[in-house]
Amino acid sequence: MKSTSRISSVSRRLALGAAAVLAATSASVAAADDGPGPFGVTALVGPTAESARVGALFSADQAGNLAGHHFCTASVVHSPRRDLIVTAAHCVDGDDAGGLVFVPGYRDGQAPYGVWKVAERYLPDGWAKGRDEDSDVAFAAVEERDGRQVEEVTGANRFVSGMATGATAVTVTGYPDSREVPVSCTNKPVAHSATQQRIDCPEFTGGTSGSPWVNGDHQVVGVLGGHEQGGSTADTSYSVVLGSEAGELYKDVVTG
After folding, report:
1. Which of 177, 184, 174, 92 lies closest to 140 in space, CA to CA?
2. What CATH number should be reported for the domain holding residue 198?
3. Structural domain of residue 141, as residue ranges?
4. Nearest to 70 by CA among 120, 9, 114, 123
5. Are 126 and 65 in contact (CB under 8 A)?
6. Residue 52's Cα: distance from chain center in Å?
7. C-alpha span between 182 and 13 (Å, rounded)
8. Is 0.85 surpassed by the pTM of this model?
């Protein structure tokens, strides 16, 4: 049975996730006029320049034994210091969240681009003060490795607020807790409410919280989370609408 959180059960503070079996059930395989198909089909992701920007989150005490221990997804976004990742706020708000590591391009227990220690977390007031599901997005800065910042190693997408929901198709990439490689799905988001957006993509189960929604211009226009911490079923996922609160948080982070 699917939980109401997309965080893996290996995180002691969060809920169970269901097993992931890739499928195209309840998904359209037709190409849309404004983007390539098939839409609404989830598939494994190979190692590419784009997938290198997406990684898994682990507790720091698992850094030496990664296989099977990831619990959330995050991705590198551009910043002047080139050290920034974005994820869901509910992924990084626990007491032990300072002891986290980010592994971009994680695959089969390996860290092809290194293991990066989370140094600082940045949560919006709406989440920090009341766990408001409309504020379920957060940033984190990671420490440099060998004199380099993470963005220098992996590249980055751009974080964009104020984009109209469904203006373009997006690709969602994340790490289900039952798999050791990422999966992705492309579809067009629709409005769930004025503050939440949703996308139909099968088998985004526990561990996919924080997955970026990236459009064709390499812009992050959503982050899996929000309503029901990402959704109560595996086939429909949610994100907060990245509006003024998210935009101001990003601005504060990169200029502070």
Report:
1. 92
2. 2.40.10.10
3. 1-256
4. 9
5. no
6. 13
7. 23
8. yes
